[in-house]
Amino acid sequence: MLDTLDAAAVRRWCASGLAALKRHQGEIDQLNVYPVPDGDTGTNLVLTLTSAQQALAMDLDTLPDSGPTAHGHALRLMAQGALLGARGNSGVILSQILRGFADQVAGVPAVRGRELAAALRSGTAAAYTAVSRPVEGTVLTVVAAAAAAAEGADSDDLPTVAGVAARAAAEALARTPEQLPALARAGVVDAGGRGLCVLLDALVEVLTGERTARPAPTPRSARPAATVARETGSDEYAYEVQFLLDARAEAVAGLRRALDALGDSLVVVGDGREPEGTWNVHVHVNDVGAAVEAGVVAGRPYRISVTRFADQSESPSGPVVAGRAAVVVATGGGIADLFAAEGATVVPGNPSTGELLDAVRSTGAARVVVLPNDANTEAVASAAAREAHRYGIKVSVVPTRSPVQALAALAVRDGDRRFEDDVIAMAEAAGACRYAEVCHASREALTVAGPCRPGDVLALVEGEVHLIGTDLTDTCAAVVDRMLGGGGEMVTLLAGVDAPAGLTDAVRAHVARRWPFVEVHAYPGGQPFYPLLVGIE
C-alpha cells in the first residue's frame, strides 16, 4: 500500500494504465458512438497514453533545478506527452484531465488523499473548460463524479480516496445512457468515460497492489463498430479537423470564436505555458480550409489531421495521417542509393544527434520513422527523436542493426496504414530478417567460435562470431548455409567496397545449388570493412 503518489508511482500508473487500455481497447472501440460513431475511442486513448508514457520514459530523469517536485515533474511530462499525442475528443479531454491534475499537485510536498481529491477537481475543471459546449453523459460527467466522491471522502488515506473515486466513476458511467440519448439508443455506456474508469482502476491497482475487475455495464444489444447513426445534430458536419498550434492565449480566444461559428465538437486545449504555448485543436466542420486558415491566423498550426466521417464509417481502423517519411543511416554509396530509391532520406554513418535531427526536420513530415542500422546509432536516434518532439514531429525509431534489416522494413511500408501500425509492421519485418556480416580479423582475439588471428575471415551472425575461416568466398557461403538451415525464403547480399570481383555471383551460385527454392538478391553496397552483408528473410 502506498500512502503518497511519488514519481515512481506516477510512472507505474502510466504504464499500468496503458496496459489496461490496451486490454480493453477493442471493448471501448465497440462502445464508441459519441461524439461520432467512428469506433476508435479505445484506439485514440491508447495512442494518447502511449505518447504520455514515451514522454515520461524520455525525460523523467531531467528534473529542473527549480520548479515542480519530482512527482509534479513526472505528472507534467505525462500531461504534456498526452497533449502532443492526443487523438480525438476523448484523447484531448484526457490530456486536459492530466494537465489539471498535474497543475494542482506539482508544488505540494506529498500527494495524499485530500491532494488527490483536489487534483481530480482541478482535472475536471480543465476538462470542462476545454470543451466549448460540455455535454453530460460523457467522460466529463464521469470525471466530475470521481472528483466529487473523492472530496466527499474527506480523508488523507490515498488508497481509500482513490478507491472511492474509481467506484463513483464506474457508477456515473453506468448512468450515462440516461443522460445522453445517443447512448440509450445504441444501448451502450460512454466510451471515453469507460476509458477513464480503466485508468482510475489502474491507479487503485498501483496504490494497493490489487487489481480491480470492474467490467463495463453490458450493452443491451451488440452492434458492429462504426455502423450506428451519428447522434442528433452532429451529422451536419462531414469532417474532423485536428492540429497542434503554437500561439498566444489572446489569439486562441479569437480562434475559438472562429471555429465555433464553423462547426461543432470544438475542443481547444493548451499546455499552460506563457506567453505562448502549444494548443491541441479539435473541431467538426464542413469547410476544412477555413478551419485550417483560422489556425494560421491565430499562430503556427502543424501536425494537421483531417478525417472524413464517411470514410471512418467504412473503415473503423482510424484515420491515416498524411505527411510521413523515413530517415535511414547508411554507410556506403550503393546502400545509400538503395535507400534513396525507396524514398528514404539518407544520413551518412556515425551521425550526431543534431545531424539526425536536421534530417528529420528536412523531410517536412509530421511523422518520421528512423532506421539507425547500428546499435550505437540507435541511442543517437532516440536522442534525436526526443528533440524532434519539441518541434511537433512524431519520430519512431525502429531498432535496425544492419542495412539488410532496414531494406526489409522499408519493403513493407504502406501509406494507407495508420502511422503507428506501419511502424509496427516495419519493426516486425526488420526483426524477422536475420543478418550476418563477413569481415577480416584485425587482431588476435578469443571468440565464441574459437581463437582468431589477424587476417582470418570472420562471419558474425546477429553480432556474434559464428565462423572463422581462411577463404572469403567459402566462409561467405558457409554462413549463408548456416543461416538458411534455420529457415528462409529470400537472401539479400550487399557487396562491400573491398569485396573481390565475383563474390556475390559465387555465393548466388552456391545458394542456387544447395537451396534451389530460395530467392537471392545481390547489390553493390559499397560499405567499408565488411566485404559482404547478408540478410535472410
Can you characterise this structure?
It is a single chain. The chain has 537 residues and is of the alpha/beta class. Helices cover 50% and strands 18% of the residues. The chain is built from 20 helices and 16 strands. The chain has helices spanning 7-23, 25-31, 41-59, 70-85, 88-105, 113-130, 139-153, 158-179, 181-186, 191-208, 249-262, 288-298, 309-314, 333-341, 353-362, 375-389, 403-411, 419-432, 472-484, 503-514, and strands spanning 239-248, 264-270, 276-285, 300-308, 324-330, 345-348, 367-371, 394-397, 434-440, 445-447, 450-452, 457-461, 464-469, 490-495, 519-524, 532-536. The strands form 4 sheets. Strands 13-12-9-16-14-15 form a 6-stranded mixed sheet, sandwiched between helices. Helix 20 (503-514) links the parallel strand 14 and strand 15. The protein is elongated and about 80 Å long. InterPro entries: DegV_domain_contain (IPR050270), DhaL_dom (IPR004007), DhaL_dom_sf (IPR036117), FakA-like_C (IPR033470), FakA-like_M (IPR048394), YloV-like (IPR019986). It comes from Micromonospora saelicesensis. This is DhaL domain-containing protein. Pfam families: Dak2, FakA-like_C, FakA-like_M.
